[in-house]
Specification:
The protein is of the alpha/beta class. The protein has 2 domains: 57 residues, no CATH class; 264 residues, 4-Layer Sandwich (Purple Acid Phosphatase, chain A, domain 2). 42% of the residues lie in helices and 18% in strands. Helix 9 links the parallel strand 8 and strand 9. The chain is rod-shaped, with a radius of gyration of 40 Å.
Length: 397
């Protein structure tokens, strides 16, 4: 056996090779002679020489570990793999935490930007409407009923010209003027005392490519135009009723992001309407712009002792809305008001009246393409202490 040190052999490897050779009977040397070989290979000065016990004990410790499979390759590799997996898990956790944090920062930034946009819109039209002759209250009676007035699916900004329908911002103005005229007739017929106005989906929006092609206004122009029209409508109604209560139910057309999965809660142009109306109508003391207390998208109020829930309807259907609202809020409504399906109608579910209102714009290109056409229409409900007295099917064209 060659007992000389190999060119790249370390001291520990040299000790191990000689010790293994001695144990296996290949090398017939005592540990004293083995120690002399090691000292000569790794020690230049005799004063640095170590005793045979120093090398023998070092070999014995290494042998004990080897015989205990401490250095067994499969076990060692398994341990390394496990440690690598743990490190990878921690790296993924850190990456997820960083992603969540960045998402939170972006969300807060978007909310702040949205709030700034609200302030800018209101500041541009901050002057309140002055009370004129139209603001003089002409209501003199004390009726025993109130009106539940729906202004839903207005879709301001869309321009429609097809065999079924014509619609633009000027026609919208005409539709709303006719609607107000019909409301006043109903009020005079029933001597109605108060008006509860539910407004939803005020703009056409940008949620579909077809809508973008049919729109003749951008979102901000749509919002400003309809906000002024609705302000005029409410001013007119304020002169006919003792009190006018206004609620807003945000719709899917009014969300800011085209993709609903990218939209944050509250990023909806309908939400701005309440801010705008408060600024413009602050001189009219009998107009109350009400908040949605229970849920931002669901209006809840009481008319003549009857509980009314109102939502746009894109997350509900007439068949399940009564059960859903009852389970959600722990109370059963007497009347539910929905929009979204663009058709007037009423369904009775477990003695609850589910009232649906149509749209102000009528059939657009998409509706015609899927063979669903409808006239522009809305509903007005007369409610007294016994509940729904009658439902008016108002055609706007």
């Amino acid at each position: 056996m060659d007992v000389k040190r190999q060119p790249t052999e370390t001291e520990s490897a040299y000790i191990w090779r000689l010790g293994q050779a001695k144990d296996n009977g290949i090398l017939d040397l005592t540990w004293t002679k083995i120690a002399n070989l090691i000292n000569k290979e790794f020690r230049e000065d005799i004063s640095e020489y170590r005793s045979e016990s120093a090398y023998r004990k070092k070999y014995a410790i290494a042998k004990e570990f080897a015989e205990g499979n401490v250095f067994k390759s499969t076990s060692y590799s398994s341990d390394i793999s496990q440690q690598i997996q743990e490190l990878q898990k921690e790296r993924i956790k850190l990456s997820d935490a960083r992603t969540d944090y960045n998402r939170l920062v972006r969300r807060e930034a978007r909310k702040e930007s949205y709030a700034d946009m609200v302030k800018n819109i209101i500041c541009e039209n901050v002057d309140p409407i002055k009370i004129g002759t139209e603001g003089v209250n002409q209501y003199y009676g004390h009726g025993n009923n109130d009106l539940l007035i729906h202004i839903s699916d207005i879709h301001t900004g869309i321009e429609i010209h097809n065999w079924k329908n014509n619609f633009d911002e000027n026609i919208l103005k005409t539709h709303l003027e006719k609607y107000v005229s019909e409301i006043i007739k109903i009020q005079q017929r029933h001597y109605s005392e108060n008006a509860f106005v539910v407004i939803g989906e005020i703009i056409s929006g940008i949620i579909h490519n077809n809508l973008r092609l049919q729109n003749n206004m951008d979102m901000m122009e749509q919002f400003k135009y309809i906000s002024e029209l609705l302000s005029s409508v409410l001013v007119e109604l304020s002169g006919r009723f003792k009190q006018v209560y206004v609620y807003v139910t945000p719709g899917n057309h009014s969300r800011i992001s085209p993709k609903k999965e990218d939209a944050l809660d509250g990023e909806n142009m309908d939400v701005l309407l309440g801010f705008y109306l408060r600024a413009r109508l602050q001189n009219y003391k009998n107009i109350s712009i009400c908040e949605n207390i229970i849920d931002p998208e669901i209006a809840s109020f009481v008319v003549r002792g009857k509980k009314v829930f109102a939502a746009h309807g894109h997350k509900d259907s007439p068949q399940n809305v009564v059960q859903n609202f009852t389970l959600m809020f722990g109370m059963r409504p007497d009347i539910v008001l929905l929009g979204h399906r663009h058709t007037n109608g009423m369904t009775t579910v477990s003695d609850v009246k589910v009232i649906e209102s149509g749209c102000c714009s009528g059939s657009d290109q998409y509706a015609v393409s899927i063979r669903k056409t409808n006239r522009p229409e809305q509903t007005v409900s007369v409610v007294d202490n016994n509940g729904l007295v009658c439902l008016y099917d108002i055609q706007l064209d």
